[in-house]
């Protein structure tokens, strides 16, 4: 049905007669007639029609970190994906869904990264649609790279949607340890200016809402294609996989050192240092943010925010929701630890690393032989750039990757995504009658093949909540 629903509202304003009552003594002095209070009647009727276009289309992109430390967190996500789908499918407005999955692996072009599992280009934002883990069949149609279900029986899979989602979302842990979460999203959606990869081309719909969900336990390290950040042969101390290299060893800390700006104990904004200050072994920093200045070596977070908002240029605040299950941006502590696995490393040489902002100790993606104790527990490093990106959108959700279960997080994200396709239509203040009921009438106007039907809908508070009826709900 080609449906268009409209609501007509009439509200009355009561004109108080206090001024007339105040004149009563003077009037009594001139006449003996009995004063009667005037009959109160509406002096004006205001009618407003709210036309609400029913748009149930929503495109949802999941960015799943597939680096070596993510197995436990992916499993916890997978457990909640059927519930995620159940929330969306249980909406009063049945959603028209596109759901895709992309990895954090955009490669790390450098002369020392192949030994740690990084290629030059990675997955380049291409949707991941192969069966993973113990799953052997996604039930997706041949050639399909994402889930499509219009809510009316037209879909590109044959199994249960929650199970299909699980099958393609658990990407494993073989991706590059220099995660490019934001660049991968940008590339996948073609918002970087180059258009989406061919296999992604028909995913994003101009007239659909957009949801982006990020699962990661490390911060974004999205660098431009011509970067030297991952090279050992750059700056002073070239070819030194140790502290003598001016960029430090090729390890995750480079992403912090050249990706963040923080305040020290004196309130000075600094880059996280390579060498410990005054012989200290730890340094606490505060108010960290993305280093979008010329001293940074990563793509500015502000650029990614602009790119994504430009996908919905008419009303990005109300058409885009971004969520992340990630590590808190604070506390932010640099620790210097002994390292003996580098090239030409001196005995007792200290390397910097970022301590986890939540959870247990765990192995470092890039330096798995570091002094951190391996564990199967969830943990995460300060998600400075990830948090800054997410909270730059009016509709956003940020939850902790270290939670024992992601049930609450996934439910909150799914509920907010559902709210995108059921926006509020009345923003004015509604008057109330003596019984505190809204002084409004609601008329449902339905158009079907140019035939219009008008039906008065009663207020639920006066008809014992018997459907169909209407209520006012906050938006």
Question: Describe it for me?
Answer:
The protein has helices at 18-22, 24-30, 71-89, 161-169, 181-189, 253-257, 301-309, 316-319, 384-390, 407-420; strands at 5-12, 45-52, 57-64, 96-103, 147-149, 209-215, 260-263, 269-270, 282-290, 320-326, 332-338, 350-354, 358-359, 379-380, 395-400, 442-448, 451-457. With 475 residues, the protein is α/β, with parallel strands linked by helices. The chain has a 6-stranded mixed sheet, with helices on both faces. Helix 3 (71-89) crosses helix 10 and helix 5 (181-189) packs parallel to helix 7 (301-309). The protein starts with a strand and ends in an 18-residue tail after the last strand. Mean pLDDT is 84; it is low at 1-31 and 362-376.
What order do the helices and strands come in, and which of them pair?
Elements (H helix, E strand, L loop, with lengths): L4 E8 L5 H5 L1 H7 L14 E8 L4 E8 L6 H19 L6 E8 L43 E3 L11 H9 L11 H9 L19 E7 L37 H5 L2 E4 L5 E2 L11 E9 L10 H9 L6 H4 E7 L5 E7 L11 E5 L3 E2 L19 E2 L3 H7 L4 E6 L6 H14 L21 E7 L2 E7 L18
Parallel strand pairs: 3-4, 3-6, 6-10, 10-15
Antiparallel strand pairs: 1-2, 4-5, 7-8, 7-9, 9-11, 11-12, 13-14, 16-17
Helix pairs in contact: 3-4, 3-10, 5-7, 7-9
């Amino acid at each position: 049905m080609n449906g268009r629903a409209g609501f007509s509202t009439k509200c009355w304003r009561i004109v108080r007669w206090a001024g007339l009552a105040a004149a009563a003594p003077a009037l009594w002095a001139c006449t003996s007639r009995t004063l009667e209070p005037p009959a109160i009647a509406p002096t004006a009727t205001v009618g407003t029609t709210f036309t609400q276009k029913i748009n149930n289309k929503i495109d949802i992109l999941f960015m799943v970190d597939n680096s070596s430390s993510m197995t436990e967190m992916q499993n916890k996500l997978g457990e909640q994906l059927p519930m995620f789908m159940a929330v969306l499918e249980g909406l009063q407005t049945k959603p028209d869904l596109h759901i895709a999955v992309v990895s954090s692996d955009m490669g790390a072009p450098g002369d020392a990264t192949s030994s740690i599992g990084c290629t030059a280009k990675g997955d380049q934002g291409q949707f991941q649609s192969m069966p993973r883990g113990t799953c052997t069949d996604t039930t997706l149609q041949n050639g399909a790279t994402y889930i499509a279900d219009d809510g009316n029986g037209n879909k590109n899979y044959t199994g249960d949607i929650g199970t299909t989602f699980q099958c393609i979302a658990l990407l494993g842990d073989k991706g590059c340890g220099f995660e490019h979460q934001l660049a991968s999203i940008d590339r996948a959606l073609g918002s970087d200016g180059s258009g989406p990869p061919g296999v992604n081309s028909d995913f994003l719909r101009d007239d659909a809402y957009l949801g982006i969900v990020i699962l990661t336990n490390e911060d974004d390290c999205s660098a431009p294609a011509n970067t030297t950040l991952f090279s050992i042969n750059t700056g002073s101390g070239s070819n030194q996989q140790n502290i003598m290299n001016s960029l430090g060893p090729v390890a995750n800390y480079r992403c912090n050192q050249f990706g963040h700006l923080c305040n020290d104990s004196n309130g000075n904004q600094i880059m996280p240092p390579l060498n410990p200050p005054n012989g200290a072994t730890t340094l606490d920093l505060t108010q960290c943010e993305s280093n979008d200045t010329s001293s940074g070596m990563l793509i500015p977070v502000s650029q990614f925010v602009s790119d994504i908002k430009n996908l919905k240029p008419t009303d990005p605040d109300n058409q885009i929701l971004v969520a992340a299950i990630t590590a808190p941006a604070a506390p932010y502590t640099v620790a210097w630890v002994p390292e003996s696995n580098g090239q030409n490393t001196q005995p007792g040489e200290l390397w910097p690393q970022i301590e986890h902002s939540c959870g247990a100790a765990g192995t470092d993606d890039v330096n798995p032989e570091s002094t951190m104790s391996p564990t199967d527990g969830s943990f995460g490093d300060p998600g400075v750039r990830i948090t800054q990106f997410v909270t730059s959108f009016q509709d956003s959700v940020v939850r902790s990757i270290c939670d024992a279960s992601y049930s609450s997080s996934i439910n909150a994200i799914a509920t907010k995504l559902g709210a995108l396709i059921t926006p509020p239509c009345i923003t004015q203040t509604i008057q109330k009658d003596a019984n505190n009921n809204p002084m409004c009438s609601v008329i449902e106007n339905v158009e079907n093949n140019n035939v219009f039907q008008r039906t008065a809908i009663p207020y639920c508070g006066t008809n014992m909540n018997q459907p169909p009826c209407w209520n006012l709900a906050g938006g």
